[in-house]
Design brief:
Elements (H helix, E strand, L loop, with lengths): L5 E16 L5 E17 L3 E5 L6 H8 L7 E6 L2 E2 L5 H8 L2 E4 L13 H11 L5 H14 L16 H13 L5 E5 L7 H18 L2 E5 L3 H7 L2 E6 L2 E7 H6 L4 H8 L6 H6 L30 H5 L5 E4 L2 E3 L16
Parallel strand pairs: 3-8, 3-9, 6-7, 7-8
Antiparallel strand pairs: 1-2, 1-4, 4-5, 9-10, 10-12, 11-12
Helix pairs in contact: 3-4, 3-5, 4-5, 5-6
Length: 337
């Protein structure tokens, strides 16, 4: 995997949550394999979309990158510095450059703090100016996200969901970050508001030269905003490619199944299209399948899929996939045997 121009490199990242038993003498009896040995990079100025079913580990990946969850193993390199080896004091300075927009605008804002206090708190914590400078910067940020600067004394309950998410975006911008992890920032919003928030994120990216990790399960929206797209299943990334390459020529059977469920705004084409229906349920991350994570639901599974975990490798320029059935000369359509 090329790291040319990468602002962030994730290498063999794992995050397991222990499962304990007992009241007095607690002992670990297992672990949830939330993120299980993933590697990818994010290039400066791009948007990497991260998609997959609910519970596949997308949000955990974002939080582990920012060290809100400490990883079980692996590396997270930001401008070449390994965040996993930094202590709290070392992370403090780096966190100014890496921020997060949370999924739920109703839960991510403190109801006891005014809008001015919410947006100004990061600047106060990092000592970015005196009170007057912080107030001026807060007003500037509110204007930047399309809100009236006069709202600084209002409280979160006085705003709609879309307005609250704009406040969350303003808070994320307060420290002039380079990388923003957008953790399903539109999934809790009305459909009519989603496009406005996505357009705002695109405008901010262009004006401020931001880099995004955009986590979502809405494949249509990810196609609109992303430069490249990574597909995740049961804690593992199964495919990464440029946006149009992935949507037009998906190579992994799971990616093909996901995209076959996206409605086509053309009734005749929609009627002719064949859907890929997956059998069974997603396995438990406590006891994931051996070999390929997807093999228990894959219609093309063969014997080697249960024995060996497929290598995540480049099969075409800027197109990586983890599948035993995909050859380097595959051009799209179904994987070749």
């Amino acid at each position: 995997m090329s790291d040319q121009g990468a602002i962030l490199q994730v290498k063999n990242l794992k995050k397991y949550f222990p499962i304990s038993q007992g009241i007095v003498l607690r002992r670990q009896i297992g672990a949830v394999h939330a993120v299980d040995d993933i590697s990818f990079d994010i290039r400066a100025g791009e948007t990497l979309g991260l998609v997959g079913e609910s519970g596949c580990g997308k949000s955990t990946t974002g939080r582990t990158i920012l060290q809100l969850y400490r990883p079980t193993s692996g590396q997270v390199l930001f401008h070449g510095e390994d965040l996993t080896r930094m202590n709290r004091n070392g992370l403090r300075g780096t966190r100014r450059k890496m921020q997060m927009i949370f999924q739920d605008p109703y839960a991510s804002l403190n109801p006891r703090m005014s809008v001015g206090e919410i947006i100004g708190e990061p600047m106060l914590v990092h000592r970015m100016g005196n009170r007057r400078e912080i107030e001026a910067r807060t007003s500037e940020l509110l204007e930047m996200v399309g809100l009236n600067p006069g709202y600084v004394k209002r409280y979160p309950h006085e705003f709609s969901g879309g307005q609250r998410q704009r406040i969350g975006i303003a808070r994320a911008l307060a420290l002039n970050p380079e990388l923003i992890v957008c953790d399903e920032p539109i999934s809790a919003l009305d459909v009519s508001i989603q496009a406005q928030v996505v357009n705002l994120l695109e405008d901010l990216q262009r004006d401020l030269n931001l880099t995004y990790l955009f986590i979502a399960h809405d494949l249509s929206m990810v196609r609109h905003i992303s430069t490249r797209v990574a597909v995740m299943y049961l804690g593992a990334i199964v495919e990464i490619a440029l946006r149009e390459d992935l949507y037009n020529h998906p190579l992994h059977p799971y990616t093909q199944a996901l995209l076959s469920a996206v409605p086509i705004p053309n009734p005749p084409a929609e009627r002719k299209r064949q859907r890929t229906l997956l059998q069974g349920d997603v396995p438990s991350p406590v006891d994931p399948p051996s070999g390929c994570r997807f093999r228990t639901r894959c219609p093309l599974s063969i014997d080697i899929c249960s024995r060996e975990r497929p290598t995540f490798r480049q099969v075409q320029p800027d197109h990586l996939v983890a599948c035993h059935l995909v050859d380097a000369d595959t051009k799209g359509g179904e994987p070749s045997n």
